[in-house]
Amino acid sequence: MKTILVPTDFSQNAYNALFYATRLFKDQECKFYLLNTFEVDTPILTSRIDTTKGNVLYTRLSCASKDGLAETLHAITRDCEDYNHSFETLSISKKLVETVQNTIKRKKIDLVVMGTQGATRAKEYLLGSNTIRVVQGNTLCPTLMIPSEYVFTNPKDIAFSTDLRRFYGKDEIAPITRLLEMFKAELHILHIRETGKLDEIQQYNYDKLLEHLGDVEVSVHWLEKQKEKSESISNYIREYNIRMLFMVNYKHSFIERMTRESVIRKIGLHVEIPFMVIPGLS
Question: What family, per the record (predicted)?
Answer without folding.
Answer: Belongs to the universal stress protein A family.
